[in-house]
């Protein structure tokens, strides 16, 4: 154990050295002008000067989409007394193969929003952790739930049932209106979004106006180009099956098989059904229609499935209900626009390996609710803008941790012919198998219970140093030292360090949930808002992982000169 603790401390030191070195190289002048962008999904209101208090305003908030994010947001804002108009393309129950596992951190957000009863009556299953399988070995990783109420755990279910329950609950509020229709464009007037143009179920073209429009129309959003710079990556596809009438090796746990070429997932979605998701790297998958997919699943995947599930897996393949879904990843790159916000998969996506999407969406809703609560009247456009300008920054601690972990774990869990990547994969499995702080820390990150980017970086460097130590002991050789160096390099490459956009787009804001930041911007006097104490006129850079969520910084606090102000750093693990 002493050796393992020494490796952790060494990892921490090397991690800070690496981060500081990268940060020092990134301190260059920012771009002088914001990149201009054109929109193909906005419609100008020509020749009209609309008053914010116009009688034509249909609601306080228009929500585009009634999936997990849209339905939860509709209920949340409606419960706060807002008039909400939800426009959803299809109000029938969805049938998807993702969005079926809610992490404990997401369930806590569900409780905070008063929606915890939406997982009742749908045969949802409690999830208490994960089980990892690799080369015949297995280990169980439990969620660190000792400090929480006994009801707190993950939940897995049919996605459509969960969404319908939230829609039904939102519809019970008299000030929430759900309408089936397809939004074709956002209505823009002098740079401000005033509402939407949409087509009803009967084909009639209508417009709706509100001081705030929230776009959460999912991963296939046709409106996101108006509000962000979408850079969608598709690293792999999921092939979905349903296994029936069989038991998982570890009851009430998600199962991850570190297979070749990429992971296989199993988790319960009802008392009699187990979802299987087979990850297939790349954007092309074997054809289902000509039998290539069934052959691939039986010859390549089935031999790597745990023995307890093998027969049920073969039966599911023979049954033929095989579905595919591209795994999209899209970083949040918003164009802050008065009168509109992006949320959910329309705004930000990550690889679904870790099941963090719903946790991020529900966390974003809590942030938005808290920002809007002090505002009695959303028609006060200037004040609304000041309150909303902090949203994209305040969401970062949770979102960046879960997003980065999902991408990094997927890269580590995929097989590789590179020896350093192989060592990293094995080191990760063995590190998690150690138990104690070595498993509780990473699992608390994955579960959304500890959304701290610094803890994420420390654990990944600890895994790397653990792997290097195993390579070098008991007798290091030049070959092993070279592989160890490449292993460290591979661990650093898992994180994308890049400069932030100019600070005018992401104001530095107050947030009590984080005590760590890595840049201070030159701040002019006199720029204040209720939730953004500072608004920088200069340019600044940061490591993407360490977005600052600072407290109230004095306006004369420049270049990290904090005076006598005390800072408290919580333990990294």
TrEMBL record:
Domain Squalene epoxidase, residue spans: 210-482
Q: Which GO terms describe its biological process?
A: response to hormone; sterol biosynthetic process; terpene biosynthetic process
Q: Does the keyword Transmembrane helix apply?
A: yes
Coiled coil location: none
Stated membrane topology is: Multi-pass membrane protein
Q: Which reaction does it catalyse?
A: squalene + reduced [NADPH--hemoprotein reductase] + O2 = (S)-2,3-epoxysqualene + oxidized [NADPH--hemoprotein reductase] + H2O + H(+)
EC annotation from Swiss-Prot or TrEMBL: 1.14.14.17
* Subcellular localization, as worded in the UniProt entry: Membrane
What's a Gene Ontology MF term here?
A: squalene monooxygenase activity
Matching entries from InterPro entries are given as: FAD/NAD-bd_sf, Squalene_epoxidase, Squalene_monox
A GO CC annotation given for this chain: endoplasmic reticulum
Which cofactor does the UniProt annotation name? FAD
The entry's keywords: FAD, Flavoprotein, Membrane, Oxidoreductase, Transmembrane, Transmembrane helix
**Pathway(s) of this molecule:** Terpene metabolism; lanosterol biosynthesis; lanosterol from farnesyl diphosphate: step 2/3
Q: Which Pfam families match?
A: NAD_binding_8, SE
Membrane-spanning segments: 6-23
Q: Which PANTHER family match?
A: SQUALENE EPOXIDASE 2, MITOCHONDRIAL, SQUALENE MONOOXYGENASE
Q: Which family does it belong to?
A: Belongs to the squalene monooxygenase family.
Q: What does this protein do?
A: Catalyzes the stereospecific oxidation of squalene to (S)-2,3-epoxysqualene, and is considered to be a rate-limiting enzyme in steroid biosynthesis.
Q: What is this protein called?
A: Squalene monooxygenase
Q: Which organism is it from?
A: Oldenlandia corymbosa var. corymbosa
Q: What is the lineage of its organism?
A: Eukaryota, Viridiplantae, Streptophyta, Embryophyta, Tracheophyta
């Amino acid at each position: 154990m002493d050796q393992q603790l020494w490796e952790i401390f060494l990892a921490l030191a090397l991690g800070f050295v690496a981060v500081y070195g990268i940060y020092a190289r990134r301190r260059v002048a920012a771009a002088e002008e914001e990149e201009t962008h054109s929109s193909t999904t906005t419609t100008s209101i020509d020749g009209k000067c609309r008053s914010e208090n116009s009688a034509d305003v249909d609601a306080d908030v228009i929500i585009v989409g009634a999936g997990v994010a849209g339905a939860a947001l509709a209920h949340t804002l409606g419960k706060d007394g807002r008039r909400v108009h939800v426009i959803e393309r299809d109000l029938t129950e969805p049938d998807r193969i993702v969005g079926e596992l809610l992490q404990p951190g997401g369930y806590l957000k569900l409780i905070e929003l008063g929606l915890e009863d939406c997982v009742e009556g749908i045969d949802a299953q409690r999830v208490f952790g994960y089980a990892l399988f690799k080369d015949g070995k297995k280990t169980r990783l439990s969620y660190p739930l000792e400090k929480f109420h006994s009801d707190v755990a993950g939940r897995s279910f049919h996605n459509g049932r969960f969404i319908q329950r939230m829609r039904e609950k939102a519809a019970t509020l008299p000030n929430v209106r759900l309408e089936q229709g397809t939004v074709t464009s956002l209505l823009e007037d002098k740079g401000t979004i005033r509402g939407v143009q949409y087509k009803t179920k009967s084909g009639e073209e209508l417009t709706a106006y509100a001081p705030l429009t929230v776009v959460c129309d999912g991963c296939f959003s046709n409106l996101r180009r108006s509000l962000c710079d979408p850079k969608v990556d598709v690293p792999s596809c999921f092939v979905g099956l349903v296994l029936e009438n069989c038991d998982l090796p570890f009851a009430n746990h998600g199962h991850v098989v570190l297979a070749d070429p990429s992971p296989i997932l199993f988790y319960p979605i009802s008392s009699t059904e187990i979802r299987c998701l087979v990850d297939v790297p790349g954007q092309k998958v074997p054809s289902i229609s000509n039998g290539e997919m069934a052959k691939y699943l039986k010859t390549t995947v089935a031999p790597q499935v745990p023995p307890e599930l093998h027969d049920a897996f073969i039966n599911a393949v023979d049954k033929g209900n095989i579905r595919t879904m591209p795994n999209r990843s899209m970083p949040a790159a918003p164009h802050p626009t008065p009168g509109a916000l992006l949320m959910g998969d329309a705004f930000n996506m990550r690889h679904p390996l870790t099941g963090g999407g719903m946790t991020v969406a529900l966390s974003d809703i809590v942030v938005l609710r808290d920002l809007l609560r002090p505002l009695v009247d959303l028609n006060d456009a200037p004040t609304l803008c000041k309150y909303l300008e902090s949203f994209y920054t305040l969401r970062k601690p949770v979102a960046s941790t879960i997003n980065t972990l999902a991408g990094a774990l997927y890269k580590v869990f995929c097989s590789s012919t590179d020896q350093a990547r192989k060592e990293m994969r094995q080191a990760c499995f063995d590190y998690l198998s150690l138990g104690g702080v070595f498993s509780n820390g990473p699992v608390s990150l994955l579960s959304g219970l500890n959304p701290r980017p610094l803890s994420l970086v420390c654990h990944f460097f600890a895994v790397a140093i653990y792997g290097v130590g195993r390579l070098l002991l008991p007798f290091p050789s030049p070959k092993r030292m070279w592989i160890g160096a490449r292993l460290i390099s591979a661990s650093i490459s898992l994180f994308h360090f890049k400069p932030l956009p100019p600070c005018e787009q992401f104001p530095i804001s107050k947030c009590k949930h984080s005590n760590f930041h890595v840049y201070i911007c030159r701040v002019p006097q006199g720029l204040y808002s209720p939730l953004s104490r500072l608004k920088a006129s200069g340019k600044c850079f940061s490591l993407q992982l360490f977005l600052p969520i600072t407290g109230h910084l004095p306006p004369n606090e420049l270049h990290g000169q904090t005076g006598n102000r005390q800072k408290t750093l919580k333990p990294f693990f």
